Amino acid sequence: MATPKMADSDSDVSSDVLIASPQPVVMNDLNWDNPFSNDDQPALLQGAGLRCELKRFDCLFNARGDKLRLPMGSSSSINHERDPAVTSALVLTKHWNRDKELEYTELEIKSPHMKAALKAVVPMYRHFQISARHIVLRNEPHCVFHYRQEIQEYGSKLQNNEAAKHVLFLLQYMWRELSAEMFTFYSNIENPDGPATSDYQSLWMVFKPDDLIFVRPPNTSKDDRILKFISMDRCRCSHPFCWKDHWTVIAMHIDYDGNSFGHSLESFRIKRFEGFREVHRISVFPLRFHERAAEVRDRLIRRGKEFCHLEGINYREYDGVAELLSDHRDLSILGDDDYFAIQSTMVGFGCPLFSLLIVFYASNTSTTYR
To answer: How far is CA 176 from CA 31, 79, 171, in A?
Structure first.
């Protein structure tokens, strides 16, 4: 095998090959505060999403197990470009699993005018870098629906006709894709002639980001709670016995760890139900649908202030039976809290007699606790 000849002089280099000579770097010319400013910024998304149109794709597996992205309705491979819909304002892709079942959909918003509208009115996109990334919405366009009025107001004030056209196109897409859900929303949830009702699939339309939600206690021994809504999701598979076939609601509350106050996340489940149900009868629902929303809000604010005042060293006197709940309480099959105020309490060395002595002593004395 012949060894390639290495160029050891200028004569060995072809005359049509240009070699760039290094340029001297002046240290004072560098911007140390922003290192990216030292290079020419590439136009990452220049020209993307300028055509006010929607393109649809299917993302599915072929016979070899490779995942392909094809134009909707196509069954054969095509010559893939870097982005076959780079100029389209909206790109909808349906993702199918190996069993040809729809897993989820993704809406890629490429239009700079649409992204600017979402950045202006939707809190979660307030710090989103729209000049470097596209916005991708999975499944239903929740944020477009919940902030439809704000988006419409934003678009009505635009002086650029092309930008206003793109914002209107985004709202039209939402109305077309959610036509059945919108009918349910205005007929049942926003019905002024009766209590708000919803079916199971449309529950996401009831919860708006940053809503105060009311959590109904599982039994009478616990108190009502109000938390801040963050998000919700559920499994969308077609399996009839899927154990994730429930809405999982993520909410935030203020808690105390013994040193400082802070925010903590908590999840709640809304089990599947058939037909329509009144919103205020669901285990978790927005506070605005409560029949006595103002009263509950004021009462829980007072309780929260009392909780905050307990920070530090406090002394209280309690006159009554002291009940100590065991760490090994029996739960239901689904893991829910039981409905018993107290079960067999094992304290000390696991001796039930010792537990009975504590309860007997507490019932005859006034307990001071810190």
So the answer is: 49, 31, 9
Amino acid at 3: T
Query: What tokens appear for 85 in the block?
Result: 């819909």
State the DSSP H helix or E strand holding residue 214, giving kind and residue range, or none if neither. strand 212-215
For residues 50 and 172, what is the distance between their CA atoms, to the nearest angstrom?
17
CA angle 236, 240, 246 (to 5 degrees): 50
**Contact, 181 vs 263, CB < 8 A?**
no
Q: Is residue 88 classed exposed, middle or buried when 0-12, 13-18 and 19+ CB atoms within 10 A define those classes? A: buried
**Mean pLDDT of the region 198-204:** 92
Whole-number pLDDT of residue 194: 85
Percent of the chain with pLDDT over 90: 38
Per-chain mean pLDDT for the chain: 77
Highest mean pLDDT among 46-50, 221-225, 265-269: 265-269
Residue 59, exposed/middle/buried by CB under 10 A (0-12, 13-18, 19+)? middle
Distance CA 166, CA 112 (A): 9
List the one residue out of 109, 217, 94, 89 whose CA is nearest residue 162.
Answer: 89
Question: By CB neighbour count within 10 A (0-12 exposed, 13-18 middle, 19+ buried), where does 77 fall?
Answer: exposed
Helices (H) and strands (E) in the chain, counts: 7, 14
State the pTM of this model: 0.68
Name the nearest CA neighbour of 230 among 251, 247, 203: 251
- DSSP reduced 3-state for 112: helix
* 201: three-class secondary structure by DSSP: coil
User: 65-102: per-residue pLDDT in tens?
Assistant: 788 888 874 444 444 445 667 889 999 999 988 888 88
CB 280 within 8 A of CB 286: no
What's the pLDDT at 63? 78
Beta strands 276-278 and 197-199: pairing type? antiparallel
Q: For residue 270, what pLDDT is reported?
A: 92
SS3 161: helix
Is-contact 148 141, C-beta < 8 A?
Answer: no
